[in-house]
Write a structure and sequence with these properties.
The protein is 73% helix and 1% strand. It is mainly α. It has one domain: Orthogonal Bundle (ABC transporter involved in vitamin B12 uptake, BtuC). The termini are far apart.
Length: 296
């Protein structure tokens, strides 16, 4: 167990998965079921890598530009979100993401299907600092008035509009924020592994991140807990890494059946605190018989 937690590749896997799961959080909270995560991550990874290798841009600036590239790539997904919703939006954004991956598979300046390499290596500590900073910002946004407006837009857009909330603007902002985070995750991934190819940003990555978010719950705590727990779970048993999709599927079925809003849904911590407070009061309260005797 200790060897798993101290393994740098596993630590980086967990940190990048946390950022990716947080990148899906705000679009989903505002009711935008976008499946464009792989394309946004791919755009950020290739933009940061090309700047780092071909333009000799400092590594952190390259990663920041990768985040901007992910945010810009979210604009076509935003245009789709303005026109369609629900399952149609999910399918359309997934198709747009696949088109972007197809583009990089044939784009010669970045190696096409052979991949791209030569990026400067980024150790795990800066990645951890960036991931922790992103998590703190996401928690702050979620707890702010902006986050509450996003939640209202996702729960009931019509009621939110009637109360002065610009639902469309919030949805576009959530998609842009998700694109920036996915682009940063792509840049970090590229500069840790120092090699990328379109195959690194396939449909299986999207499915894993969706599992993290659905099982954890549509809150920052749920996104982080789901990403950390489910990224580490297959690593604790040797040889179970290949069974990760099956493990996730079983957990998803159990959680959807028992906790349809995820393990750490909104107000879950308040519920736990109220249960704890009631138990404390019941332990400190005198028994009924003692009360009766005292009254006599």
């Amino acid at each position: 167990m200790i060897s798993v937690l101290t393994s740098e590749p596993i630590q980086v896997l967990v940190l990048i998965n946390v950022i990716l799961t947080l990148s899906l959080l705000f679009p989903f909270v505002t009711g935008v079921w976008s499946m464009g995560l792989p394309g946004m991550m791919c755009a950020g990874a290739y933009a940061a890598s090309y700047l780092s290798v071909a333009m000799h841009t400092p590594i952190y600036i390259a990663i920041a530009v990768g985040g901007v590239a992910g945010g810009l790539i979210s604009l076509p997904f935003a245009s789709l979100a303005l026109r369609i919703q629900g399952i149609n939006l999910a399918i359309a954004t997934l198709a747009a993401s696949e088109l972007l991956l197809l583009f990089f598979s044939h784009f010669e300046p970045t190696g096409s299907v052979s991949g791209y390499m030569g990026m400067e290596f980024l150790p795990v500590l800066p990645i951890a600092i960036i991931a922790a900073s992103i998590a703190a910002v996401c928690v702050w946004i979620y707890c702010s008035r902006l986050g509450k407006a996003m939640i209202a837009a996702g729960v009931d857009p019509l009621v939110a509009e009637c109360n002065g909330v610009n639902v469309r603007a919030l949805q576009l902002l959530a998609l842009a924020l998700g694109g920036v985070l996915a682009g940063v995750a792509g840049g970090l991934y590229a500069h840790y592994y120092t090699f990328i190819s379109p195959a690194n940003f396939g449909f299986d990555r999207l499915i894993s991140v969706l599992m993290f978010l659905v099982i954890g719950g549509l809150t920052p705590l749920g996104a982080i807990a789901g990403a950390v727990t489910l990224s580490l779970l297959p690593q604790f048993v040797t040889g179970f890494e290949a069974w990760a999709p099956a493990i996730y599927a079983v957990l998803l079925i159990v959680v959807v059946a028992l906790l349809p809003d995820g393990v750490f849904r909104k107000n879950r911590l308040q519920e736990l605190r109220s249960i704890f407070a009631r138990s404390q009061r019941s332990q400190s309260a005198p028994p009924i018989a003692a009360k009766a005797g005292a009254s006599k």
